[in-house]
Structures are given as C-alpha cells and as structure tokens.
Amino acid sequence: MHEVIVEGGRACGVTFADGRTIRAGKIAANVNLKLLYTTMISADALPETFLQRMRRWQNGSGSFRINVALSTLPSFTALPGPGDHLTAGIIIAPSLDYMDRAFQDARQHGWSRQPVVELLIPSTLDDSLAPPGQHVASLFCQHVAPALPAGRSWDSCRDEVADLMIATVDRYAPGFAAAVIGRRVLTPLDLEREFGLLGGDIFHGALTLNQLFSTRPMLGHADYRGPIPGLYHCGAGAHPGGGVTGAAGHNAAKVILGDHRALFMRH
User: What percent of the chain clears pLDDT 70, i.e. is strictly above it?
Assistant: First the structure.
C-alpha cells in the first residue's frame, strides 16, 4: 500500500505503488501505525495531537531471524536423536544470568555474543515443507540492537552475526552447522525494509506502559478506530499488541461490523 485516500474527511480507498486504486467504505490497516500515519496519509488530514503521538511512537526489536534448510535433523546433547521435543520450540537460554548477559551485551556491543536462540522445525510436523529426509527450521535470535553503535550498518554485519547464531545452536546440537545447506538471514534493518517492521519491531511498537492498553495507540483511539472516519486499526499496533493471537484483528472486525450495522439502521 502506498497511500490512504481521504476525501471529505473520510478514508475511502487506498493506492498502491504500481498505480492501482481500490475504493472501499471502510479500511482496516494492519501496518505499523507510525508508518501508516507518517508516510501514507497527508499530515493535513490528521489531528495535530494524534500526528505528534505517531511521530513519537517507539519501535525497536532485539530480534534477528534466520530461516535454514537442513540436510538432516539436529541432535541435541541434552536429548540426542529424534523425538517429540523436535516438534516444539527449542530455546537455548541456559539460565537467567545467561539471558541477562545477552541483553546487556547487545546494548553495548550491538549483538549478544552468547545469544538466546529459539529453534523451530516445522517440517517435523509437515513433511511437505522439505524433500524426504531433509528439513527446514527458523531461528529466532536475541538479543540485537535495532541500530548498531558507532554508525555500523547491519548490511556489513549480517553474515558475521548469522554465523554466530548458527554456531550457538551447534554448541548444543553438534553437527547443526554442517547440516545447514541454505539460509536466509533477516536483520532488524532487513525486517524494516522488506516488511515495514520499523526498527525490526515485530510488535508494531514497543510494549511499554505508555504504549499499552488504553494508550495503544493513543488515549481515545484504543477502540480500533483511527482519527479519520472509515479507518480502523487491526494489527499489532492496536490493543492487545503483538503476538500470535489474532486478538486485535478479531476485536477490530467486531467494531467494524458494529459500525456497519449502526449505519445501516440509520438509513
């Protein structure tokens, strides 16, 4: 989506980068709200207080993603061989002290040199995802800084950090690194450029007290209705925030249907 069309004080459609236009009576926005209100809607169409809130909206995630193709399943020292444990989330985080060091290290260095890594192997549940005998896995790696210190770019550090993350898994599952036959690496910068996740923030905004509950995204607009009639918030930037729940979309759909019924009854 390139721009929200606002006419007569109402949102009435969207345009795309390729020039296409779609008209609609109601629009549900699932993009990061800072991206929506500071780049896709004219500032003149927005209340000044709401626009300033969106300009100050805090984004930033300490995550780094890697998708890998594997020639074989990993075997963990703690529980060797195949088993049901490989169908669940496997988190490398040996202790609270380990996790705290990972967080502190990322703040100072830009990424944790002993990272927390969550490994998921979806092909153990769906064998259509990989050729027979092979597998795919995703690595959700923490912690990293959305913006690196000393002016460094994630583009110049991507492979170095990816190698570190894979080596970390290899320490707990010897042979894992050798089993990687392909990988796709997504730094916080890649997540922003490819998916509109500002600062790599998968939650569309920091989950801090000033950006949660009735203040997500702002007092007076936590009911899934934007400041422009006809525009609704259905993504992670709305209450209750990010996570694989679908709650924001479910709640927004109920509000949209309620508004539609109310309009129908009036006419």
Answer: 98
